[in-house]
Amino acid sequence: MKTLIKNSTVVLPDAEERCDVLIENGVIAVIGAAVHTQADEVIDAAGLHLLPGVIDDQVHFREPGLTHKEDLRTASRACARGGVTSFLEMPNTRPATISCDALHEKLALAADRSLVNYGFYIGATPDNVVELQRARRTPGIKIFIGSSTGNLLVDEQEALERIFAETSLPICAHCEDEATVRANSAALNGGSDYADHSRIRDNKAAIIATRRAVELAERHRHQFHVLHVSTAEEIEFLRTTSELISGEACPHHLLFSTDDYQRLGSLVQMNPSIKSPADVEAVWQGLLQGVLEVVATDHAPHTLAEKQQPYPQSPSGLPAVENSLALMLNQVHYGRCTLAQVVQWMCSAPARIWSLKGKGAIREGFDADLVLVDLSLKQEVRNEQQLTRCGWSPWHGETLTGWPVRTLVHGQTVWCAGQFDEQVRGREIEFDRSA
Ligand code: DOR
């Protein structure tokens, strides 16, 4: 099967070029000016930009166990519409993904249901080092150093030392210090309004845990990725760390601040919490200056009924995979960053950090996971149009400029102009750890 994408502006690793892209059997075969070849399908993409598909390295898709919020089919459809062609999913499902058997069961579920490519982290517990050592079909290990949704928590120093010392897969962590969170919560009697969430999960909780995890990683010479960095203190600290350490920002920490609780209440209740406008600015500067390398969503759907409970019963998390690329393209539209930076943060950096084979760039020989975007298309985010099963977005009512219009997974169009090809299936992501 040959597909030819003609006339788009292609975002290549080092340049943007008006050229054609020929896909053969799911792989990018030729990139060049006016490729003359017979193709089974010709896509005229004049006026559009061709980007590598987004790789979202931090999502919670709830299957197995919590499928009233989301499942692999609803989530992967939302991905396809959002231009996300590969996802790496977190282990806090029910049961949690803390053994190789649970990991392989999830991979089998995804093979059956997912419209885009998939990978799953294995979760650390205080006593599953043997499983962490045996796991192969995974990007790496996730540690909750600080509890969040679900019951995965590794807080004792001895257990953390073992994980960093005795495993070799890359590690990422949710960094919020449990003792600080508990003390803050006790001081506020558990908290009574949504804004208390940011007082309980405060800057101190984030920086203490991030420092602690980075110290472990550097001492044990372990590759380590700090998920969802939210504070100015962490940015300053991460400027000083070694090449073993990478960091990530989420759209909600770039686009919402504590000022938004009044308007959005629990819809912006997340872990780590939303922080002050000064922290938002610091996270932006961290990204723009290369202190943080990745933008990923932490997509964490909960139903509106669950979210509408009073604090602190309201769960933490918000959905984002179907809007994340548009949210960042909208920032390009406003001149906050460039298209090349968005591609680095959302495509090439996650592929590099997690050693994804053949992904993250438009390059001959790479997988044809691609997204065509219209940088001038203006569309409003509407709750009733969301594909995530939870059916809402904290960006409801916002008009964004720059949207995906067609998504290809291994050369097959999975979504275009509002239509899905429900036959398309993503593939298990492979990891190239030879280096
Ligand atoms: O707010 C959050 N929700 N943060 C997390 O780390 C987990 C997530 C969830 O799974 O609901």
Written account of the structure:
The protein is an alpha/beta fold and 435 residues long. The chain has two domains: 2-50 and 364-386 and 400-420, Roll (Urease, subunit C, domain 1); 52-353, TIM Barrel (Alpha-Beta Barrel), CATH 3.20.20. Helices cover 30% and strands 23% of the residues. It is built from 14 helices and 18 strands. It has helices spanning 72-82, 100-113, 129-134, 157-166, 178-187, 196-200, 203-219, 232-238, 251-255, 261-264, 277-288, 304-307, 324-333, 339-353, and strands at 2-11, 16-24, 27-32, 41-44, 49-52, 54-59, 84-89, 117-120, 122-123, 141-145, 171-175, 224-226, 245-249, 294-295, 370-380, 399-409, 412-416, 419-420. Strands 1, 2, 3, 4, 5, 15, 16, 17 and 18 form a nine-stranded mixed beta sheet that branches. β12, α8 and β13 form a beta-alpha-beta unit. The longest helix is centred in the middle third of the chain and has 17 residues, at 203-219. The chain binds (4S)-2,6-dioxohexahydropyrimidine-4-carboxylic acid. (4S)-2,6-dioxohexahydropyrimidine-4-carboxylic acid binds next to loops.
